[in-house]
Design goal:
The complex is a heterodimer of chains A (117) and B (233).
Chain A (H helix, E strand, L loop, with lengths): L2 H30 L7 H23 L10 H17 L4 H20 L4
Chain B lengths: L2 H13 L2 H18 L4 H11 L2 H13 L3 H11 L3 H8 L7 H5 L1 H4 L5 H10 L5 H29 L5 H20 L4 H20 L4 H23 L1
Helix pairs in contact in B: 1-10, 2-3, 2-4, 2-10, 2-11, 3-10, 4-5, 9-10, 12-13
The chains are: A mainly alpha (117), B mainly alpha (233).
Chain lengths: 117, 233
């Protein structure tokens, strides 16, 4: 393989990845012209989007791949639960929930790295 | 109302929490791209071009593995499949506005979970003509924060200890979990509850098809459970 190929290959792959993602965006836009926002079908699609995203998020927290997979499951779950307690305690405050969960998670990962537990 | 102030209002709403969270999670992504040995340009352009973290991570991991192009594309496409139902429910918001409707194929490129929720929450308070400018302001702020965060993460990668990088990666799913839990629409909340419970076991069943399956299952249960609850009331 020439050096030209190795320099340009990631860009070609990236272009394809961008196209693969835009495919869904464009397809949805094309079909959306036929959908009435007041209809039951529209509400069902919104439910599908939310259900899919919730499934994705819960899978990432419970069974992550990549960097997060190097952390302990119990740390992720405890941090998430702690965040939810404060989230509801502060009238569903998204900022407080996120920052408290992230802070506890960082503390737990740090403590494990230091061999504290 | 003229367009400028609405665009600015969108930009300000985006600037509060969403842009901060996008920047944080993209710092984690930038560090990941650096550790994969790819360039800063790839890092930033992939954030703006793919504009969906699970797909971006799939892209980096597959290129790193040297996997066949087709399997990389399939992984990216499946990880970002959520954009289909998301654009289906976002785009009708621009109907009734000539300029908004004309720009719809551009607007969907700006769409992320953040900007999608941002517009869906605000749309009832905005006339159709104001939705486009508001959404554009909100989205470009988030995208700029995402691109800036990616670059910062890439450049700081070597200086960041593991517990910081991994926390930044953790922020993305956890932030979305709270954004969604703050929703007040019962049908969507029910769908999310079912999705969150069935997501992991379905993934064990079929890593590739679990997401669309989970979405249709959870969405259908949420949709009909809500109608049923309304009827017995």
């Amino acid at each position: 393989m020439s050096s030209l190929d190795t320099t340009h290959a990631p860009w070609i792959l990236l272009g394809l990845a961008i196209a693969a993602t835009y495919f869904w965006r464009g397809l949805g836009t094309a079909i959306a012209a036929r959908i009435d926002p007041e209809s039951g079908l529209f509400q069902w699609i919104a439910c599908v989007a939310y259900g899919l995203l919730a499934g994705l998020i819960s899978r990432i927290i419970v069974m992550p791949v990549g960097l997060l997979a190097e952390t302990e499951t119990i740390d992720r779950l405890v941090a998430t639960a702690f965040g939810f307690v404060l989230f509801y305690a502060f009238r569903r405050n998204v900022g407080i929930g996120t920052l408290s969960a992230a802070s506890l998670f960082m503390g737990l990962v740090w403590a494990r790295g230091e061999g504290i537990f | 109302m003229p367009i400028g102030p609405v665009f600015r209002q969108g930009a300000m709403d985006g600037l509060s929490l969403p842009a901060f969270m996008v920047a944080s999670s993209m710092i984690g992504y930038g560090a990941l791209v650096h550790s994969a040995g790819m360039s800063l340009g790839i890092a930033v352009v992939s954030t703006i071009g793919i504009w969906g973290l699970p797909g971006q991570v799939a892209f980096i991991e597959y290129v790193l593995l040297g996997a066949p192009i087709l399997s990389m594309l399939l992984a990216v496409a499946l990880a970002n499949m959520r954009f289909l139902p998301m654009s289906l429910s976002l785009v009708p918001m621009f109907r009734g506005s000539k300029s908004g409707w004309r720009l719809r194929y551009f607007y969907v490129q700006l769409m992320s979970v953040n900007t999608w929720v941002g517009l869906l929450k605000k749309a009832p308070d905005l006339s159709p003509n104001m939705r486009g400018p508001y959404y554009a302001g909100f989205s470009t702020t988030c995208m700029a924060a995402g691109a800036g965060g990616t670059a910062a993460g890439f450049l700081m990668a070597e200086a960041m200890p593991f517990f910081v990088t991994v926390t930044l990666v953790f922020i993305n799913p956890i932030y979305f979990a709270f954004i969604f839990s703050a929703m007040r629409v019962r049908a969507c909340l029910l769908a999310m509850l079912v999705g969150a419970i069935t997501g992991p076991p379905l993934y064990l069943l079929s890593p590739v098809w679990s997401l669309p399956l989970c979405g249709v299952l959870a969405g259908t249960v949420g949709f009909y459970a809500d109608r049923w609850l309304r009827r017995i009331r």
